[in-house]
Amino acid sequence: MKTGKVFMFPGQGSQVRGMGADLFDQHRELVAQADEILGYSIKELCLQDPQKVLTQTDFTQPALFTIEAMSYLSEMENTVSVPDYLIGHSLGEFAALFAAGVFDFATGLTLVKKRGSLMASAPRGGGMAAVIGLNKEEVSNILRQPSLASLDFANDNAPDQCVIAGKAEDIQSAKALFEREGARYVPLNVSAAFHSRYMAPIQDEFRAYVRDFDFGTLTVPVISNVTALPHDAATIKNQLVQQISSPVQWTDSINFLLNQAAQDFIEIGPGHVLTGLLEKIRTNFKATPLPIEISTNSISNHSTPPIDTESSQQIETVSTPDFRETYDVGSNLIGGSLRDGVASADLVIAAGKNGFFCSYGAQQLGKEKVLRDIARIKAELGTKRFGVGFVPDWKAPEADIHLIEALLKAGVETLELSGLIAPSLALVRFRLTGARLMSNGHAIAPNTIIAKVTRPSTAISFMAPPPPDKVKEALARRLITEQEAEAAPYLPLAQDICAHGDAAGQSNTSNVLGLLPVLQSARDRMRAAGELSAPVRIGASGGFGHPKSIAAGFMMGADFVMITAPLQCTYEAGTSSRVKEMLQVCDVDDCDYAPAGQFFEQGGQSQVLRKGVFFPARARKLYSLWQYHDAISKIDSKTRIQLEKNYFANDLEQVWHDVERRMWKEQNSIEIEHAQSDEKTKMGLVFKQYFRQSVQYALQGQSNQIVNFQVQSSSAMGAVNNWIGHSLWEQRHAADLLSQLNEDVMRVMRQGMSASIQ
Questions:
Q1: Is pTM beyond 0.70 here?
Q2: For this structure, is 195 an active site residue?
Q3: Catalytic residue among 90, 117, 510, 739, which?
């Protein structure tokens, strides 16, 4: 059984102007071939796109294939081992087959050119939509409804991300139905229903075209989009044809590879979309008892095509404006928001008065309290800037808009985003309010966003300008003015991106040391491609509690470093003294990952205190029960008694009645109605009540419920304890802690630079 490397090739949608800037001079022979086959300059299309056609299917597909083929050759030049498996998403499958030696570059590009031309000529009136938050089975069940008979399942991208296709008008009308089931529904900017029955005429034409080409043998196994199994040499042509109208079985394909013990997945080509999907699939992967062995009967010894050895172009480092100047502070060390008011108004005020930027933990608090605290912070700090923690609610976008309106009215100028973030109408409203285009062509905006991200694809979406469709909608709804809309293309949605990993609270288990340089590289590529409308800063958060680790972050090029967990064990933090007593003695290994209540159904993870509590284990138990049961009534009596006694201290039916009353009070009638007709939804809401209770137990310091305390924490808490010697929390003040950390960080950095000079 193979245990090694997988190369993944992305499909349409990953294209970006400027892609492959460092490849064209390396592979001049291939570039010349491409120009001859296509009848235009592939380099000009990819780097400049003067005719604005790169997003058109008949240009996108040849461009991506060319970039991915050259990227593969460059990767093979620099690697010591060949991949054990190859896989491509839709169009990317052609690049995978090229890498496997099934056809040469010219043949592959000729096929892709024809495929792109045919798909571009598909009948108009088709559409596609992404369904986020439901799995393949759930989406398929909904599509069985008679009213949706015209829609097809098109892509199974991840356990919580599918794509459907069909007639454009039916795609639009299906939105309400999917949203009622709890999904985020995103119509895609396409002109046809790809990977559906509506591609049958295109498929027939492509079959006739492919028939005349000769394919070689596989040198490396390639996973088929159609079957989610390795290609058989005899059926490659047929499956490439079928792929046009068949769903892309990406989740099953990755699961197959994981079941073969594949571990090292490398995305070849522009972007990191497939890497993000891989993370989601890994999280939900369960190995089958007998992994499938791949037959090598049709696989020859792998040989690498000749490679142009000219050196690649170097991308210049992007210089950004001074962080301290923007936020009018004395340090690039900042305090992050801790939800439920743990990052309290008192903490923000104390930090701000001593020259440190800090964010208020507004997440999960009522609007009235948030506005009262913001008013007090502004009264104390005057013109000094501070942030407000904000977790977008993709289930309630209108509620987000109303909250943003209230924050703007209260004079908030900076949002610190966390959770499952994505560009939204509410964020566009916030960012563009007060923005204007100056006579020199530059744009200015008074409001800033610090976006904490756990994956490159999210970072890229926030480094880009606000999405034009969102700007158009905001303008139509009079959320922004014409002047503000005019400035939008010249502003990044978030000027400050924070690589967020191993942090207290929701962080998806990302590693900041791996994530930070990847985000920096993404920024630099966007800068080189002319896709950055203004400078963007890249900071880091998660695991930073010791001066040496913070110094390492700065030495890696972080424009700012955010600390969170250590601040909740200070005098000003808005949590109970009992929690602070527990935190002041914890070490670097006293935390654990557990399901996050706010993102329970999506499988989101939260890093919490483990020492002295049962919460992480109990949270995992609840999530496991939710995964494997369709209703509370299906849980065995012994387990139910345990839940009622130890977890909830209440009968589960009574817990549901309490949840129901609260949600009616919060005017959340849609989710209540859904739960009343769906037992699994009801079970999820009941289980999430444990997470709500566990937070309140901790905030209130209820001694009889210590084992159920949910305390957001990370290794940074143990690191700062080791640094300051486990002092009492009463002696720790936020401003003093930040000041001492900053001083010692500067000392470490000076020592490091002196050592390097010597």
A1: no
A2: yes
A3: 90
